[in-house]
Design goal:
Elements: H1 2-21, H2 38-63, H3 65-70, H4 82-111, H5 115-145, H6 154-176, H7 178-193
Helix pairs in contact: 2-4, 4-5, 5-6
Length: 194
């Protein structure tokens, strides 16, 4: 019965509102906020490190491709087909516009103990799984198409495999985390009061 279901939902929200009214708000990591779990700290570090690596390896490559390649973040221009270099630069621009802000919002939201941090984390994890899949697919496509390219080395394969696996685990963890559920309830209750 939809009417009974809505009534039950309202009663649960009222009960939770009473429970959460006693809790303090958690602006950032203040002394009154409970510490983040080790798993959530690891997720925050993952987002911050990825944002930093993307800034250096992708964003900077848009304007200074050869410099970034000399640091090892991109394949040197002379080893690639010209179209591949320009594709890498275009991907770097897209990553700058989309992926970096998502990583930063995810880390900030988790540190603030806000539910949007979990939502942005799921977005970042999905995008990370997507780009790691592209890394594998490009290797196969370039090879089969006879396009001048340098295949991923063992270190690059290890890094993108770790990123993929961590993203799968992080998504699963956030779905199962009671901390995130509390943030969602707190955010939902604050919206009900507005």
């Amino acid at each position: 019965d939809p009417k009974a279901s809505r009534k039950l939902s309202r009663s649960v929200l009222q009960h939770n509102k009473h429970l959460f009214a006693k809790q303090t708000t958690w602006p950032m990591a203040s002394s009154s906020s409970p510490p983040l779990s080790l798993a959530l700290k690891a997720i925050v570090v993952f987002h911050v490190v990825n944002a930093g690596l993307w800034l250096v390896g992708q964003t900077l490559a848009v304007w200074q491709y050869d410099l970034v390649a000399s640091w090892g973040f991109q394949t040197p221009r002379e080893l690639l087909d010209g179209a591949v270099v320009e594709t890498n630069r275009a991907i770097g621009m897209a990553d700058t516009i989309v992926l970096n802000p998502v990583y930063i919002m995810a880390a900030a939201g988790l540190l603030k103990r806000q539910f949007y941090g979990a939502i942005c984390s799921w977005m970042a994890f999905a995008l990370t799984m997507y780009w790691t899949s592209i890394g594998y697919a490009l290797d196969i496509a370039y090879e089969s198409g006879g396009i001048k390219n340098v295949p991923l080395d063992a270190f690059a394969l290890a890094v993108i495999s770790f990123d993929f696996a961590f993203s799968v685990w992080g998504s699963w963890y956030l779905c199962r985390s009671n901390e995130v559920l509390v943030w969602w309830q707190k955010d939902l209750l604050s919206k009900k009061n507005d």
